[in-house]
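User: Hey, my collaborator sent me this sequence without any context and asked if I could get a structure. I don't really work with proteins. Can you help?
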Amino acid sequence: MRPMHRKFIATIAAASIAITAMGSAPAFADEYDTQRLLAAILGLAVVGKIIHDNKKDKKRSTYEYRHEPRVIHEQPRHRTYQQPRQGAHDLAPRPLPRRVDRKLLPGQCLRSFDTRDGRVRMFGRKCLQNNYRFTHRLPQHCMTRVRTDRGKRHGYAARCLRREGYRLAHR
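Assistant: No problem. I've predicted the 3D structure and written it out in structure-token form, which is a compact way to encode the shape of the chain:
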């Protein structure tokens, strides 16, 4: 049994005990008063049952609102690369940003020189001045001078420039 029914039954039992106790006591009231008392108790029981049923109906009629789940359309965080259209052959690739382009050295300036100490690879100074616009930013400690059978050559050591973050442009 549910606790609500237990309370209701306990109330009825208490009322019946009170009524039986009145029956054993000397009767001071007449039969009409007893009928009125029983009618009042019966009315209270009916009102209690109606209240109980209303509470039970409210528990059943509580609505549980369920919303449709939202549809989430995931989009990429960054713009994705799009292939050029078939008819667009005249499009050139985008140039590199200046901060990246500054570290790319022209490939035609890389030379190998044979010296007494072996082969030396370096970027020629005049070639870089003609083909590379950031010559003034090259590290000065990479500047070298090499003696060959054709004379002295001035330039920048390739290994030193690579350590400084410069790369060879393959264009």
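In plain terms: Residues 31-60 form the longest helix (30 residues). You can pass these tokens on to your collaborator as they are.
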